[in-house]
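Saturday, quiet lab. Running sequence design on the structure tokens for the scaffold JK sent over.
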């Protein structure tokens, strides 16, 4: 799996951030043929979150309604520390980033 390409960050296509195609992959080895047991692979969708502004992704992109309390006060975006695809249900869920595949390999997870 590859990270998004900067050359595709084009306001005419996907506003000012990369399209999600490379950031929303989910691969399911249902019978363990590839990984010896049922396994999910998920992409690193948090790629460049709060990183270089040229990628156009970060806390500043959260809608105002999502970062405002009912009384009008502003929430700290760190309230949501886990960016990207959801990867943990309980303490038995194991998702480990695999640098060779550039994806998270998850065992004990059901999507």
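Result came back. Writing it out in full:
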């Amino acid at each position: 799996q590859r990270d998004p390409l900067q050359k595709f960050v084009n306001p005419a296509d996907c506003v000012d951030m990369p399209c999600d195609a490379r950031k929303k992959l989910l691969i399911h080895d249902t019978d363990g043929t590839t990984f010896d047991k049922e396994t999910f692979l998920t992409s690193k969708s948090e790629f460049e979150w709060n990183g270089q502004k040229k990628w156009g992704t970060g806390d500043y992109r959260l809608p105002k309604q999502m970062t405002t309390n009912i009384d009008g006060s502003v929430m700290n975006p760190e309230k949501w520390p886990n960016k990207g695809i959801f990867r943990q249900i309980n303490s038995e869920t194991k998702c480990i980033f695999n640098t060779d595949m550039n994806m998270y390999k998850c065992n004990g997870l059901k999507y």
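Notes for JK: Residues 11-14 form the longest helix (4 residues). The first strand starts at residue 26 and ends at 29. Ask whether to fix the surface positions before the next round.
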